[in-house]
Putative alpha-L-fucosidase
Amino acid sequence: MTENAAGISRAEISQAAAAAGGGGAAAAPYEPNWSSLDSRPLPAWYDDAKVGVFLVWGVYSVPSYGSEWFWQFWQGSKNPKYIDFMERNFRPNFTYQDFASHFTTELFDPASWAELVAASGARYVVLTSKHHEGYTNWPSAFSPNWNSMDVGPKRDLVGDLAKAFRSKAPHVHFGLYHSMYEWFNPLYLQDRHNNYETNLFVETKTVPELYELINQYQPEVVWSDGDWAAPDWYWNSTVFLAWLFNSSPVKDTVVVNDRWGEGIMCHHGSFYTCQDRYNPGVLQNHKWENAMTLDKASWGYRREATLTDYLTIHDLLTTLAQTISCGGNLLVNVGPTHDGRIPTIMEERLRQLGSWLDINGDSVYSSRPWTHQNDSLTPGVWYTSRGDRVYAMVLEWPEDDLVKLGSVVTTKHTSITMLGYGQGNLTFTPLEDTGTHVTFPAMSKVVSQWVWVLDMLGVIPAGHTTQ
């Protein structure tokens, strides 16, 4: 368990960290300060990818009740709901560590996970390497007896999945989530007691783990979390990021989020998350990501979830349209089970998303925000663009097959088609004041089942001079 990390001498851990490749002085051009780190351009692949899948998986997948914060809610905040659950279902003196031997993953097939993520249309994947419970999904030298090789699966979950993606779905960029803090690690609790004026936990656990992950698995997304309780200098965040951007094996392609210390979120990072399920609905001036869940209440798998707890495919595509139109990426979370399955309803949502992207992906991949993000006249219409093409994602099929676009002005060069409808141009007429009236084809002749996309050439945004 996490407490055993204190049983290794500091010198031994420091030596192991050095062997893993961390701790060296950063080379130019990026210095360990936010001004310098923020000057690094965003690798183009991330902005073009638009869609990712988030896999939140750990020991909490065994009780699979309430949330992935099960341990904290049970023994930290003493939530009566969790206490009652344990008293009714488990023997006295059962510990959270006892759950680990039941994290069996016997049905985990990395190749099938890679196939599913590829089928979803996602262009990157992020797996939890370690959540706030401290259990590592790889055989970390810095988490003895509390990792996936020593207890539970008896295998390297991170390594197995990384190999599967690079073999079966090489176009999907592989990324890792990592929690900076651990709820009950005595080293962390000691540093917290000292008002973070000591950082034994960071020097011997968190930062060595990060170097180990980067050097062994070469993730192209480093999704940090659990940082908010302490300032960035306690976590040595800028020193690590300078090494990551200057000298690491992924220095040219890696992207990082914005969770590197108290007050850093939504201010520094390759992309901003700002808060869980962040969906501002307006264009942002920095690349951002909407990390959201198919289960409305939890990131980890919950056995007690009901059908209404899950997003419908229309909910998911609505969130996608809103997010991409405003310049964000969508990171769709699913929570696997303790035995290594993607729950059927989550698989269905991912495959539905993929079938939609197979038809309408031109409006998403490598797209950019248009002048208008949503329509000024008709609710539920969101815009993207690619070169001289403008795409209108229409969330609901319009009444009488007619949609009024207040933000689009036609010209003599205009043509409008619908993705998934292969029978030519659609009829359109200018509105009296400004905008365009578009006639939809018969629904029976359109391949797409949800959220219909107009592909427009030769249009200009309302409010601009007609060409």
Q: What stands out?
A: Residues 200-217 form the longest helix (18 residues).
